[in-house]
Amino acid sequence: MSHRVLVVEDDLDIQGYCKTILESEGFAVDACDTAAEARRLFAANRPDLAVLDIGLPDGTGMDLMKEWHGFPGPKVPVLFLTARGDLKTRLECFQQGATDYVHKPFAAEELLARAKVHLQVKKSHEELIKRNYELELVARARQDMTDMIVHDLKAPLTAIKGTLELIHARGLISQDNYVSLLSNAGSAADFMLLMLNDMLDLAQAKAQGLKINPAFIDPSLLLKKIETLFAGRMKLTGASVTMRVAPGVEKVRADQNLLYRVLANLITNAMKAAPGAHPIEVDCGYNGVSARFVVSDRGPGVPDAEKKRIFEKYVTSGRKDSAMDTGTGIGLSFCHAAVLAHKGRIWVEDRPGGGSRFVFELPQSE
Ligand SMILES: Nc1ncnc2c1ncn2[C@@H]1O[C@H](COP(=O)(O)OP(=O)(O)OP(=O)(O)O)[C@@H](O)[C@H]1O
Ligand SMILES: [Mg+2]
């Protein structure tokens, strides 16, 4: 985009000369000979540089500059054209905020060279401001993230602390309750570990790509392990998770730890999406090329516009009316990174009859 220059000069020969020189360099030029017209042009088309005569029939260039520098936003650089070469006038120009000046008469090359330098400085300055603003946004997002993580870790930690306090008063609780309290505290600690590991792995994935350690896993055993992880929550909320492995699928080649955590994340989301006694289903199958896992819920579903975006880091629905109690937005981006590390793919689709189906496929060939 070409730069816009405003030339204010009441000597029409000099004004025309400036306009021709600047236009020959590709600048868009507005030119006028009075302070009143200069104000109008400045308001209509904010210039990137103003070239001002000091003495104008209805005011001074200095007053115009002071007025414009009082406006909010980045200051427009001002280059004065002056026949008065005395030191006092020059110094006054700078004291009032001028960027530069040129003596009349001047050579075309000098005006152009100075105009270009100041436009470049202005551009660099604006880029710095923009970059600074972007950095501030990133810093703010990081702080929000840290706040959310601290908040999310507090719930399971409080549960563990409560359990420890109850155990301290052991005589007051029955053996059955004692065992179930311990197992709930164990699940809470497991969830904290899952969350921390997701965060650490995501940081590693960003730096060098997520590393996988593939092995042949029995999917039925893996799903049993996951069932144990959620046993406490299911009891608490009344939710049910049905695990199904298609007949004949006896082994899946994958990183056991990552696969466990991808499924744990998807089931956690499904429980948040459809709280209470809603049924959640987890299916494992094989389509001849890839192992295919599907986690289905009867929650509110994911709007089409968000279907891709939710796999990005720190993206949550943020919808106040959402049934989904949103967290940090790390879970799905971890799932995405983990599935990609297996050269697989993950997506969400609408579930017939309502709800979502989170599907991922892990290719089984080497
Ligand atoms: N089963 C689901 N049904 C509806 N929306 C979902 C479901 N799973 C995820 N989402 C949407 O995707 C967003 C991102 O999910 P993600 O798991 O990344 O983050 P989160 O669950 O909010 O936080 P956490 O980092 O604790 O997992 C959620 O905030 C929610 O808006
Ligand atoms: Mg989640």
Question: Which CATH architecture of the largest domain would you pick?
Answer: 2-Layer Sandwich
Cα distance, first to last residue?
52 Å
Hetero groups bound?
adenosine-5'-triphosphate, magnesium ion
Q: Tell me the strand order in the biggest sheet.
A: 2-1-3-6-7
Q: Give the overall pLDDT as a whole number.
A: 87
Pick out the low-confidence regions.
none
The number of domains is: 3
Derived structural class: alpha/beta
Principal-axes shape call: elongated
Describe this structure in words.
This protein has 366 residues and is an alpha/beta fold. It folds into three domains: 4-131, Rossmann fold (3-Layer(aba) Sandwich); 139-208, Signal transduction histidine kinase, dimerisation/phosphotransfer (DHp) domain (Helix Hairpins, Orthogonal Bundle); 215-363, Histidine kinase-like ATPase, C-terminal domain (Heat Shock Protein 90, 2-Layer Sandwich). The chain contains nine helices and 14 strands. It has helices at residues 12-24, 35-44, 61-69, 87-95, 108-168, 175-208, 219-237, 256-273, 331-341, and strands at residues 4-8, 28-32, 49-53, 55-56, 59-60, 78-82, 100-103, 215-217, 240-245, 252-254, 279-286, 290-296, 345-350, 356-363. α4 links the parallel β6 and β7. The longest helix is centred in the middle third of the chain and has 61 residues, at 108-168. It is elongated, with a radius of gyration of 34 Å. The chain binds adenosine-5'-triphosphate (ATP) and magnesium ion. Residues 265, 268-269, 327, 331 line the site of magnesium ion.
